[in-house]
Amino acid sequence: MMQFAGDHPALPSALGALGVLLVGAPLVPGVAARTRALLTGRRGPPAWQLYADLAKLLRKGAVYSTTTTWAFRLAPLAVVVTTVMACLLLPVDGRSALVSFTGDVVAFAYLLGLGRFLLVLGALDTGSSFEGMGASREVTFASLVEPGLFVVLVALGIATQRLSLTGMFGAELWREWSLVAPSVILLAASLFVLMLAECSRVPVDDPATHLELTMIHEVMVLDHSGPDFALILYANALKLGVFATLVLDLLVPRAELAAWASAATLVAGLVACGAAVGVVESTMARLRLPKVPLFIAGGTALGLFGLILLLQ
Amino acid sequence: MESLGQLVLFLVVFTDFAVLGSSRLSACIRAVALQGLLLGLLPPILYGSSSVHAWTLAAGTIVVKAIALPAFLRWAIREASVRREVEPLIGYMASLLLGVAALAASFAVANVLPVIGGGAGLLIPAALVTVIIGLIVLITRAKALTQVVGYLMLENGIYLFGLTQLERVPFLVEVGVLLDVFVGVFIMGIVVFHINREFDSISAARLTELRE
Q: Cα separations (Å) of B26 from B77, B80, B142, B151, B189?
């Protein structure tokens, strides 16, 4: 059965939460950077730095290389649009998503995948071998994250007997939560590890690095400038927000809360997730490239452990 | 108490995977020490804090498995100046996947295993997976010292299995398990020490080349 916004049971709450996520997402990397700075004894930029960066970039003009084609110009828009579409499938308010249908988990995973694919196309379109290298690394790690993500989704599907994100992460999860708590906590931990890899955070990639040999995600977007770059930064922050919301949905019951309380919890969750990312970033060194698959496999192993516990 | 026991058993399984996934010898030893500590906490949690027997067992386990043996292993590293890296014969990735397969297998087997008294929830699967991962470490790591770690994990798994029968099996048997580990590691430690002195290497692969 397909459900759209029009006949949604709690439209204001879902819309409000989605708005909070769309507006609040740039806070997550900001809080992460701030936490990292505080823990390493520096003052650091304010948590809302990314908003200022986005505002600055949006005022600038974009420069396009003459070798690039429409694919290059499409990439930033496409990555934002696919990520926002993925948000629509997500039960952001902890209850139900704006759009949900059976099997939307696959749509969710591949909307994120489509965004990345178009971004990679844009990177390859520049004709720079350096960007090609970054794209190749990014895709390698993404192909390792994907099985992990599906392990988590399959496990949640088994736990809730549902095949939509609303069923797996929304109100219905909480009816059976106490029965499956150990494995859901494992799945949340697995999602957190996958988030670090998917959103190019520290043990896998370093968003702050500008050393050519170590850049992964930053390489791909090197040629984008001005508003285009702002869109890419925003999409990456939003993806972090999406994963933070998924983790929050697994750990905090929000189905019974009022709309404002649910939104407040969401903001708190985003900030907490940013802080957690910051703690990881300041306590862990970046992994050597060959070690990254092991890290992602470790995250997947957590998910598999959760799955095995459910099947018991 | 029930859920606390399950949590501890969870952490035991995590330490198994920590040993499988870590490339530093000291990290392996730390994980095994933590596992020893967790095993020590289990008897009072599973069998009630009023039982003197459980507390004695806990104290003994913690002293031997969490303090003495790791200290002894660290001493062996220092004395024999072992290189700090684990030298796996198969990759860490393959080790982790084997570990997950072992986990799946132990849960599958635990469901059909007729154990007298049962044992709560995770106890039997955790015991089986610790034994199997101990075996994996024992088989797939080249260094004698990492093999001692694997042997220790194997013993830890057997100890966990013993916990299901704590009320039936006399205290002496449990002490026997502890002593067994202690003696085993002691002997292996001496062997490690000598191998390193004699051949400048403690890789077990070299042992196949020994001739009379």
A: 9, 14, 16, 16, 16
